[in-house]
Amino acid sequence: MIIRKYQPSDCKELTELFYNTVHNVNAKDYTKEQLNVWATGQVDLEKWNESLQEHFSVVAVDNEIIVGFGDIDKTGYLDRLFIHADYQGKGVATAICNQLEQAVKGDIATHASITAKPFFEKRGYKIVKEQQVERQGIFLTNYVMIKER
Q1: Which residues contact 121 (CB under 8 A, 6 or more apart)?
Q2: With CB atoms 3.0 to 4.6 Å apart as the test, which of 18, 51, 72, 125 could cross-link to 145 if both were Cys?
Q3: How many domains does the chain have?
Q4: For the chain, what percent of residues have pLDDT higher than 70?
């Protein structure tokens, strides 16, 4: 497995990985209704590409297949971290996070899903607060978490 910088040609594959990860991996912690508003399957590729290019974004590739990706902005906000269902628990998220955390100075913040919370806790992130995020009238629980450095 290699970790490399995001390229615009990755965008469509990343949006599909995002959708599939949410609907397969996060399904143990969220209802079908919540999953459907979180990952609708309708994404603006231009906006995703713009965001991923503005942030420090990396992808994990195994045998020419993208198996995970993550991004962090200049303020230290770790925005996205999604790993293919078949690659959960194999160190992919750790490898991506190591790169993202090294890319910025200072504290790092993220909004972790119920599913991702234990992963971030193991990395030393602390819960600031639990929150309810509203999408199309449906509420999803996540956690504002900070890693102080």
Answers
A1: 127, 145
A2: 125
A3: 1
A4: 100
**Where in the sequence is the domain holding 36, given as residue range(s)?**
2-105
The reply to whether 116 falls in a domain is: no
pLDDT digits (tens, 9 = 90+) for 25-72: 999 999 999 999 999 999 999 999 999 999 999 999 999 999 999 999
> Beta strand 126-135 with 2-5: parallel, antiparallel or unpaired?
unpaired
pLDDT at 114 (0 to 100): 98
Q: How far apart are CA 114 and CA 75, in angstroms?
A: 23
CA dist 135 and 130 (Å) reads 16
Q: Once rounded to an integer, what is the mean pLDDT over residues 69-98? A: 98
Strands 56-62 and 108-113: unpaired
d(CA 49, CA 131): 27
Looking up tokens 């399904």 gives 27
| Residue 146 lies inside a defined structural domain of this protein | no
CA dist 147 and 49 (Å) reads 27
| Stated pTM of the model | 0.97
Can you give the pLDDT at residue 110? 98
